[in-house]
Design goal:
By secondary structure, the chain is an alpha+beta fold. The protein is about 30% helix and about 30% strand.
Length: about 290
Amino acid sequence: MMATMQLLAPAKINLFLHVTGQRSDGYHLLQTVFQLIDLSDEVTLHKTEDGQITRLSGAQNIPAEQDLVIRAAKLLQSKTQTNFGCTIELKKKIPMGAGLGGGSSDAASVLWGLNELWETGFSRQELMTLGLQLGADIPFFLLGKNAFAEGVGEVLQPLELSEKTVFVIYPQTHIPTVDVFKSPDLTRNHPTVTISDFIESPIQEQFGCNDCEKVVVQKYQAVADAIEWLRQKAPLSSPRMSGSGSSVFAIVDPDLAIQLSKQLPHQWLGFVTQGLHQHPSYEPSS
């Protein structure tokens, strides 16, 4: 019986992000394509017999009771009524507040890993349903494959995407997602598209747009500057923001990505990443 599990928790980018409506409960309806990339946090879980859930390391600027990894562990513990507890060690590499899904990915890895360690027997779909209570991106990371997403992000169709090198810039600006989606300037009636529209697009990285980007660049100059810098340095790419920001990215050839990393202004962080076909820590179901 396993007592310890180490998992990689990869980041994601949104190849496009359309806001198509808003529900009566305030949640926004989206259409997007999620692409996993190989920038990953590292999650180490150790099963304990005392029923306690303890964070040994991680995002220390977030109180433990608000941390998604703690909330995920407690939610699974509550739903399964297990007597086991755990310790959680989190080595962060994905910037926070960057639109890269780091917190959601960490929480998904905790749900997946503890389901194995505690032998609680939840199916992948049950874990995805549970994860949605904590965050709209969590079901995607539990699916473990690139996907076309609708609803609030939980209606997922697995999608095969071509191999790609993605240069990501984090302009060291933390953007609260709630602020972006509260903005009166946010487009909320983007015409809907289909997965076929995306698949049949001649240049998929130029498909659609990110509706959140218009709101963010008005308020956060660093994001606007990063997008413009990528446009100048990689004029054949179509740089755009991921999620609700603040990270921006461009899909480029590997040599150009390395050049961009060397030329990057010192006030920003840059990552040369590769698109993934599936989650690196577990075998996704078909």
